[in-house]
């Protein structure tokens, strides 16, 4: 299962989302995880991509 989580707003870069989500993914033992800053339609965005077994994601969310 692949899951994409997007957080957008005027000041989401440098707000601590990436370190927080990285630590959370490590604690929950997600296999495939990536988080990065981006810009979407003139707003800052933090994008998190998770790839893991559906049961693992559902169990941990």
Description:
With 61 residues, this protein is an alpha+beta fold. It has one domain (2-60): Dodecin subunit-like, CATH 3.30.1660. Helices cover 30% and strands 43% of the residues. The protein has 2 helices and 3 strands, in the order βαββα. It has helices spanning 17-27, 54-60, and strands at residues 2-9, 32-40, 43-51. A hairpin with a 2-residue loop joins strand 2 (32-40) and strand 3 (43-51). The chain starts with a strand and ends with a helix.
Q: What's the SSE blueprint?
A:
Layout: E1 2-9, H1 17-27, E2 32-40, E3 43-51, H2 54-60
Antiparallel strand pairs: 1-3, 2-3
What descriptors fit this protein?
alpha+beta; 61 residues; Dodecin subunit-like
Count of runs of 4 or more consecutive helical residues: 2
Strand order of the largest sheet: 1-3-2
The Rg value, from CA coordinates, equals: 12 Å
Oligomer: single chain
Helix amount:
25-40%
The biggest beta sheet is recorded as: 3 strands, antiparallel
Instruction: Give the integer mean of the pLDDT values.
Output: 89
Find the count of extended strands (DSSP E, 2+ residues): 3
- Architecture in CATH? 2-Layer Sandwich
Task: Determine the strand fraction and express it as a percent band.
Answer: 35-45%
- Helix/strand-derived category reads alpha+beta
**Which topology does CATH recognise?**
Dodecin subunit-like
The helix-strand sequence is EHEEH
Poorly predicted runs: none
Principal-axis shape equals elongated
Highest-level CATH class: Alpha Beta
């Amino acid at each position: 299962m692949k899951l994409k989580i997007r957080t957008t707003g005027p000041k989401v870069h440098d707000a601590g989302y990436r370190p927080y989500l990285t630590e959370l993914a490590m604690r929950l033992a997600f296999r495939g995880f990536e988080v990065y800053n981006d810009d979407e339609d003139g707003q800052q965005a933090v994008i998190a991509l998770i790839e893991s077994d559906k049961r693992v994601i559902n169990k941990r969310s």
